[in-house]
Amino acid sequence: MNFSKEIIHWYLQNKRDLPWRKTKDPYRIWLSEIMLQQTRVAQGLPYYEKFTAAFPTVYDLAKAEESQVLKLWQGLGYYSRARNLHYTAKDIVENYNGKFPSTYKELLQLKGVGDYTASAIASICFDEVAPVVDGNVYRVLARYFDIDTPINSTEGIKKFKELAFEVIAEDDPANFNQAIMEFGAVQCKPQNPYCIVCPLNNSCEGLKNQRVGMLPVKLKKTKIKHRWFNYLVVIAKETETLLEERTGKGIWQGLYQFPLLETKKAITDIHSHQEEIKALVQLRNFSITPYNTEAKIHKLSHQHLHTTFWIVETTENLKNGILLQEIRKYPVPILIGNFIEEFNF
Questions:
Q1: 210 and 230 housed in the same domain
Q2: Is residue 220 part of a domain?
Q3: Which one from 33, 128, 182, 240 is the annotated catalytic residue?
């Protein structure tokens, strides 16, 4: 049986109708691949459509303000992807005359473009034999060939890349790469794969050995870090509030938030933090009450944020205050965005 031909045949009959499959424009392929990292297609599709409407070309993205890019990205998470996207757009315009490099090796030089994205662009746009290896591909290969080497180990990364080179259709790398990713997403799913109607079921080693549910193997994740975030939602004279930009290299760099008091554990007596709060909001007189009495837990890849919003009301004038009706113009983490909608400023 020819693995690559079967996969492509399945793909041509079953592929989903997605906008980036109707083009070989490297800008749009690049956008879709960056957006779909750690993101389901159903979630990423509206963002792709918003981005291509706002920035039809790489020149448009390069000219945009970072805050505009982050605002459109709001809710997708992993905001370093958006910042790298913006940086790389400017790099392509300034140093490549607005044209994407056409080879895997050259594409790897772009910021935010790793092995997977470079392989996808090189194969789909320029027909280079450059196999993609993402989570879907790992799963298909691990199950079909019954390989239990951990996919996130150095040995596993090398082994599966070599295997991907062996099975790629050299005469049609673009369709093969899209086919194997789609096959993993739709047919060979993480849970409850459709093995009974799978076109590869007669030759799948994992199925034959009854190990499909155990594959692929992954090394245990990094230990989760717990943090306690206390957001100070200032309401001054029912007209203004405070937002601050997150700086540094931590999470959500460049996004805006309410003044933040981070503590080592949940606050049981807010009045014991009175001086810290005064310094953060630069107010002398105010009342403070919890908006949520039970912390909301916001889960990131390696940390859980135990979050409480505190409503700080005052009749004083704010330094650097913003009008309440302007609050939705700022790019904020989804955690803050959800609160803004719920609180209904």
A1: no
A2: no
A3: 33
